[in-house]
Amino acid sequence: MRRRPERVLLLAALVAVGVAVVRPGLGTARWTVLGLVELQRLPAAAPLLPPPAPARIAHGGGALDGHHIPNTLEALERNHARGVRWFEMDFLPDSSGEWWAVHDWAHSNTAQAPRLAQVLGWFGRHPDARLVTDTKGDNAVLLRQLQAAPPELRARIHPQLYRFEEYAETRTAGFAAPIFTTYRSGYPWWLLRRFVERAPLLAVTVTREQVSDGCAALSGRVPLLTHTVNDAAEAAALARAGVSGIFTDELLP
Q: 3-class DSSP state for residue 155?
């Protein structure tokens, strides 16, 4: 019975889609329907005790010699040595299906790009480091690849999710608390609020343009992160606005 309101909303959203087909706004209606369907399918989640949301996450492994988003083992090693413990790394598959630490193939130094297995090996050798994943590819496939990591390592991998439907797999596979990130979806804020109330998370990542709306909708319900911030004054202003942490290339220990 407690899910009856969602069923009513789903029916209303389906009607809205029919109306929106012939007018602007179909995108919002589509994401509303998708979100309501995905919430209906979301299994009950056990309580989660995540660590505090980090104030700084090294974007793409953190800057290396002035270069941003390197996604290399050298960037991990050098920034870990200076005190960084939270690292975001980007992953993409090649044409054969093998996954690499790459932000995008067009602008990456493929000669230095490590394989996913090499990145996991580095984190295995650094038990105080945590990995936040990001991909422009198929996240479901990446999550299945990450399940090959040992349990102790999976417990330090915080997958970023882009769809509500990805949540269940992260909880059953023994990963650390996931992060929901908004840049690949268009769920309305009221629906995202319902999601975080039902699905415990480490944080929600919003774009800088979404900070005001995100804080208004989610403040007090889940920590907010944003990306990518390299100006100290802007980082301080975001903290005052209610943002818990940032992805950054430069603002590292």
A: coil
